[in-house]
Amino acid sequence: MNVLGVIGILTAFFMVIFLSYKGLNLVYVIIAACFVVIVTNGMNFIETFENVIMAGIGEQAASLLAVYLFGALFGKVFIDSGAAQSFTNGLMNILAKNADDERRRTTALMVLIFTGALLCYVGIDTNASMVTMIGLGVGLFSATGIPRRFLPVSLVVSTTIGFTMPGSANMIPVMISNMMGTTSLSGAVPGAIGALFVFIASILLLKSKVRKAVAAGEIFEYGPLEPVKETSDHQPHPIVAVLPLLAVILLYNLANLPAWLAIACGLGISMILFYTYMPIPEERLGGSSLVGKFWGLVETLNSGTMLAAVAAIFLFNFSLGLVINEAPAFQIIQNFFTSLNLPALVSLAIMCTVLVGASAGPGGVIISVLVATSVYIPEMGISAAACHRIIVAATAILDTLPFGGGCVMIMAMTNIKMKEGYPPIFQTTILFTAIGLIIVTALLMLFPGLA
Question: Contact 273/237 with Cβ under 8 angstroms?
Answer without folding.
Answer: no
